[in-house]
Amino acid sequence: MAVREPALASRCRRVAESAKPAIELDRVTKRFVSPTGKSFTALHDLDLTVAAGEFVAVVGPTGCGKSTTLALISGLEAPSSGAVRVFGEPVTAVGRSVGYVFQRDAVFPWKSVIDNVAMGPRFRGIDTQKANTEAHEWIARVGLDGFERYYPHQLSGGMRKRVALAQTLINHPRILLMDEPFSALDVQTRALMENELLDLWASTAASVVFVTHDLEEAIGMADRVVVITAGPGTVKGSYRVDLPRPRNIAEIRFQPRFVELYEEIWNDLRDEVLVSYERSKHSVAS
Amino acid sequence: MSAQSTASRRSPVVATDAAAEDFDAARARARERRRLLVLALRVALAIVILGSWELTTRLGCHGPDSGTCVVDPFFFGQPSGIWSQLVTWVEKGTAQGSLWEQIAVTLEETVLGFAIGVVLGIIFGVALGRNRLLSDVLGPYIKAMNAMPRVVLGSIFTIALGLEIPSKVALAVVLVFFVVFFNAFQGVREVDRDLLANARILGASQSQLSRHVILPSALSWILASLHTSFGFALVGAIVGEYLGARKGIGLMIATAQGTFNANGVFAAMFILAVVAIIAEWLVTRLENFLIKWRPNAITEVTI
Q1: Contact of A163 with A113, CB cutoff 8 Å
Q2: How far is A49 from chain B (nearest CA, A)?
């Protein structure tokens, strides 16, 4: 049963659930200063806890600070106030146990597929020979066997995403952050990639925070869906997705339980989407 | 399902039926015709320009005074005179030694100045591009130095470094440096933020970031500047020689000027043009080699 979790309840539950959650965001606020000197609050008092091995999808309207949340967990950005902890340790720098798949292509265009995938181990001091052997394995695992010497511009969008996945997973991240990773793909490729990601994830036991604006994708993939309010973002509700695994993303949406969950979460999300839409209209008008 | 759609999308490209072959053959013929047309027009243009130059410097001449010609060859030279000047230089050498030696000296100065200027430009460009404080502090000085007509520095270099190669190299370096510097600086500033973030997440240290992300990314900007900057290196070497030298093409021009030998000046210019075209070709080759990862490089507009 999905339960709405106000900030306090979520903190109580966290203590009860596990001694050492994978990710904790504790009353996190993040402000940015725009180039014109105006300050802008992206996140306000956000509480979020992700258990070890849990797959959490974060949904919310455009500009609600979803990506900022990931940047804080990864250590790319520091919170303005509040605490970010990964495996109980405060995040002070870019974490070694974190993997991050970006929305846009973030593979290096000047490196071939094999060099792209081998980058992580090589950055971490593993010699080229060994890194390449490992990279070969991962390239095969994401289904790009034979494309080792290709450059990213010679691949399709879906293939580049596979390169990005291999590049990230080769580091064996215990925390996998994904920022709308498949939003640029066509619908069929997307369903395929979603299934493959679930298979890969099942063999890693990593905790996943998967940011998306697509509620179907969120429910289909995740153990739990967290709804973030229109900016400044804070947690509006958290819903456990009790659909059995392994799942087939292309077909799961026909299950009655899926439809139920969708309706329930959409009721929550719709208001935020409307707020965000009204604001964008006003900001265009003014 | 997606595999199917991919296959159907790709099939027309690899089709080998007769219609496609005919189409390809017709396209190839059209391309070849166009290539020949362009070549013929180029040759025709050269003939028209050189021919009218030669003609106007020969028409209406009376007696020994070349001033009576439509265009005075004493001041403006003439193609046949330029050609015989080139033949003389090749066969008998120039006033200051063999022609090849002059070309070699100028090339040495140019290439040295180019190489040093490029390396310095990249180092400073990347350093200032990566370090906000440094660029804020040094920025106005660099802009001021860039605004200065740096060719006048040639006089200082000739006084300080003498008539040999170093003074020309120094002038070439000064001219090349700023072109490369500004491009490298801009290239570093334009590095994709997601790529930087990705490399940091993957575990890159600061020096690894520079080597694997920032430099390759800025490389296309830097390479685009090399086309312009080789020209500047040549200008530096020639002007330096012109101001005072014992050898080099610039000195040949100065000597020709001193003896009112217009054909000599044009002949030296012709040699410089050939050198510059060969250099441009080499830079393009280098560029294609270094950024083979990119489908079509953004370079300066070429014809």
Answers
A1: yes
A2: 21
pTM of the model: 0.75
**Mean pLDDT (10-residue bins), chain A, 286 residues:** 43 47 91 83 90 92 84 92 91 89 89 93 91 92 90 90 92 92 87 89 90 91 91 86 88 90 90 83 68
A35 close to B (CB below 8 A): no
Which of helix, strand or coil describes residue B115?
helix
State whether B291 and A110 contact (CB < 8 Å).
yes
Neighbours of B172 (CB within 10 A): 32
Encode pLDDT of A49-85 as tens digits. 999 999 999 998 877 788 899 999 999 999 999 999 9
With beta carbons under 8 A apart, name residues in chain B contacting A109. 293-294
CATH number at residue A67: 3.40.50
**What's the full length of chain A, in residues?**
286
The answer to whether residue A181 neighbours chain B at the CB level (below 8 Å) is no
Q: Name the token pair of A138.
A: 């991962």
**Per the domain annotation, does A133 fall within a domain?**
no
Q: A68 is in which domain, residue-wise?
A: 7-97+219-285
**What average pLDDT does range B58-83 have in this prediction?**
81
pLDDT at B274: 92
Give the model's pLDDT for residue B296.
57
Give domain limits for chain B: 2-68, 93-290
Residue B260 C-alpha from the chain's centroid: 29
> A206 to chain B: which residues are within 8 Å by CB?
none
Q: Which residue of B has its CA nearest to A76?
A: B197
The number of domains in chain A is 1
Chain B residue numbers with beta carbons less than 8 Å from the beta carbon of A98 are 201
Contacts of A151 in chain B (CB under 8 A): 292-293
Mean pLDDT, chain B, rounded, equals 85
Min Cα separation A78/chain B (Å): 14
Whether B7 shows a pLDDT value over 60: the answer reads no
E strand residue ranges, chain B:
none
In the numeric block, the tokens 């990862």 are attached to B293
Structure token pair of residue A94: 């870019």
Q: How far is A95 from chain B (nearest CA, A)?
A: 7
Strands A39-50 and A23-33 come out as: antiparallel
Instruction: Determine the pLDDT at residue A13.
Output: 40
**Residue of chain A whose alpha carbon sits nearest to that of B207:** A123
Asked, for residue A226, whether it belongs to a domain, the answer is yes
Look up residue B151 and give its two tokens.
Answer: 């060719």
Q: Which CATH number does the domain B93-290 belong to among 1.10.1790.10, 3.10.150.10, 3.40.718.10, 1.10.3720.10?
A: 1.10.3720.10
